[in-house]
Amino acid sequence: MEGLILKKSTSLLFSGLLVSGMVLGATVTSTTVHADNTATTQATANVTNNVSYYDQNGKFILNKDEQGTKGSPITFAPDGFAIPTNNQAVFGDDAATVRVTVNEMISVKVNYVDQNNKLVNSEVVNGGVGNTAKLTDLPAGCNWVNDAEQTITLVDGKEYNVPVTKKVFNTVIFKTADNTEVGRTEVFSDKVGDAINLTSSQIPAGYKADTTSLTLQTDNNTQFITVTKDAEAATGTVTVNDQPAQLYTIYGNTITGRTLKANSSWKIFDTKVIKGKTYYKVATNEWVEASAVTVNNDTTNTVTPFTSTVTTGSVVSKLYNKEGKLLTGRALGPNTGWKTANKMILNGHTYYQVATDEWVDASTVTVAGETSTDNNVTPSTGVVTVGSNLALLYTKDGKAITDRALRPGTPWQTANKMTLNGETYYQVATNEWVKGSDLAK
């Protein structure tokens, strides 16, 4: 399917993001065998060690008291570093001093290449330099060539080409009787002629398919399925705000004497933008303005056809599935354009579909023909440097990200700037912002 190969930039911002460790303090049970061959158990007491951390070049990082059981691995690593996979230190006697060598965290690019030497997909893998990493994000419709290819050793600056065997795939486009495309998906199998049954999640929300059974055709072929609007298929729910909500026709005209009761909940069946305003369909030819209701925070979503193009900003844009779950290891490259098939509102947040069950957060892209309505955010391309202390990261709403921070003295490329509650923030990654007050002057 055109435009759905993920493109990655070799210049990534992830390399400086900090990864928090975890101290294991579990108590294990050991077995003692006596002369009479009877076995008893006793709890192994925790120990406290003074741990000194050094990087692979022997440079001191920090001292820290760690708790664990004697002989068990020390798993905590300072921010921005990782425990080596092949030389892991263990706890000694109580009050012992232990030296631990840790590896700096890096990001590497992995390309999956099929049997015809064509790029299928790419991903970013993060880990400690010199550590091994097992690849788990096999591209859809592919098989591993062999198990050995699933493990790589992380080398800073290296790009990996991993061979995979690609199955035969077809693109399925869903169209209504008037030839309007309302969605698309991809189907895979081992050979041409295999029978394929579409799942309910592959059919566009709010539609019924004339058939769900297909026969796989020549590789890269396109098949069409006719769908009809399912009037009974709700795509989400909304709750009316504290005042009654006026109802409108599909053209945005007021329906005299028709309102929704304050604080009442309603199923929604469609979404439209009428004269620049968003409306939700709650009954036959009855629509409520989005500003008069609140989209409920539930697991349902509102999906509507949306054929356009979105362009990412100067940093990678993360991808999510239809349930809003982050897809690990998959993202859209900076400053790249992507065709969309649908638009989704999930838990009050907007996403655009750019591949089969792959959605991009609307806040990280620009839609063709639209301009940003967020007057608080302005482009700000440049480099900022963290001050002498760790700099916490925040979401676009100013909420602290508890498990990520920027190391002191590290430089970061910025994409945008915003002012929130009198504080200036700079965007250094997708929905990750650093306060101006935490930067070097």
TrEMBL record:
This is S-layer protein C-terminal domain-containing protein. Residues 243-291, 317-363, 390-435 form the S-layer protein C-terminal domain. Pfam families: SlpA (PF03217). Residues 1-35 form the signal peptide. It comes from the Bacteria. Keywords: Signal.
